[in-house]
What does this fold into?
Amino acid sequence: MATDTVTISGLDALEVASQQKVPGRASRVWAATWPKLTALALALGLWQVVVWSGWKPEYALPAPLTVATDLWAYATGGALWDGLLITAQRAAIGFGAAVAVGLVLGLAVARVKVLRAALGSMITALQTMPSIAWFPLAILLFQLSEQAIFFVVVLGAAPSIANGVIHGVDYVPPLLLRAGRNLGARGLNLYRYVIAPAALPAIVAGLKQGWAFAWRSLMAGELLVVIAKSTSIGVQLTYARELSDAPRVISVMIVILVVGLLVDLLFTKADNAIRRRWGLLDRE
Amino acid sequence: MTSTTLVPEGATTAVALSGVTKVYGRGADAVVALDRVSLDVAPGEFVCLVGASGCGKSTLLNLVAGLDAVSGGGIHVAGDARPGLMFQEPALFPWLTVGANVEVPLKLRGLAGAERKTRVAELLDTVHLGDFARRRPHELSGGMRQRVALARTLALDTPVLLMDEPFGALDAMTRDILHDELERLWTARNAAGKPLTVLFVTHNVREAARLADRIVLLSSRPGRVIWQTPVDVARPRRIDSAEVATLAAEVTDRLRAEVGRHGH
Ligand SMILES: Nc1ncnc2c1ncn2[C@@H]1O[C@H](COP(=O)(O)OP(=O)(O)OP(=O)(O)O)[C@@H](O)[C@H]1O
Ligand SMILES: [Mg+2]
It folds into this structure.
């Protein structure tokens, strides 16, 4: 964006004057963050007020500052990172498998009529099933094991991902398909050059939703399926409750929230990048 | 038979339509878009199809391109060449840059990377968009997108070019330049012994008179060939020449008579 140094007069000057008011990066970031910070401050303030009111004893509902101190100790000690490692590994493996299953299933259902008739509505039904309801069966099948957790994480996330793929493939603009075919793309090439890129936004949306389900299923799994010697985040939450360590319970919850949000943010970023490339963002 | 073939009997044809009928839908909702259209196009011939909106011009091109199936009759393209179709809308891939869009057919044809690069640059220069290779389609104007689409279709290097109102969204000046460019390209291909057959759809009768070897008039729904005329004006032509204007006036009269008959 080069600015002209040529003398500008009349309406052009007005135009430029209004353009100069376009805020810089720093103030844009600030404009986006201050409402969030204010909301956070208000929430913390409310929490503090409830604590002060003496509605619950301090050992059940600790003050924000107590939790902050514990969170600091938690983060600087080894427990958090050991737990995160285990949990992140499970999340990566489970979500990765769900992505593989979801992509293959979605593609198969999108392309094969019989499969669509047979599985189309079942996938949507699976999506509405609370994943925690799978655990009793998972535990019967796999006992209290990694597999039980894995099973539920995949079942929780794969339907959303499959639905994203189905949706994406269904809504590829017919004109672009025709253009691709006319340019010589047949069979696999049509997928490579037209269908896959055209379906990408819907697939990313499916991945984002799939992640939310995977993360919830994983946390439910770690709370229910306590495996001896494993100190995952969920297990730490259970132990903290059993020890009536309220500050730690809340600290772990904050960690769970932050991890979920950070990964979600990655998907949002990817989604925005795609939409900017396609010219679907109404900015600049 | 509604057609009067101008191509001498026995001469090879690049595109042959015989009794082509296209019906969309079924039962009470059926729309007869084309009704027994017969047309022979000689190799290297430039044919302009003119007709009222909705008379089946786009349908015809889609059928010749093999993107839709005929309901009746047959279409034969010489040597089973795959015609390149420039759609009525630009139909660019929004996820690719302008250069990458033009590169797609080159990739699909199996050209090597270095060769593709030079070809893309050449093709974009042909449509006067050499500086826009790295832009995305949404950053271009409607007319510019149409020119990218033209470059992408030309990248197919096909012997049969189907163009569906390609210059409809352009200003008169750019259009004139692209007419010259297209005529130059077409003449060069024919002179080089690699005939380029063009089926060109337009609403603009002057454009048809400017470009065509032959103008074919289609009737309104259902589309039929109702009239055709050879264009015996020496090339290179100018759109504002007297001969082009005279012919355009004649075609307009025919078109008026046709539209009037249908009470539009
Ligand atoms: N996919 C479709 N399904 C049903 N009817 C269609 C379809 N495509 C075209 N038609 C109908 O066929 C007729 C011819 O359409 P076509 O697009 O070929 O017209 P056209 O001559 O290209 O018009 P224009 O000059 O406005 O582009 C129209 O009446 C249209 O409604
Ligand atoms: Mg049309």
User: Anything to note?
Assistant: The CA atoms of residues 17 and 75 of chain B lie 5 Å apart. Chain B touches chain A at residues 62, 65, 67, 82, 84-85, 87, 89, 91-96, 104-105, 107-109, 136-139, 152, 156 (CB under 8 Å). Confidence is low (pLDDT under 50) at residues 1-10 of chain B.
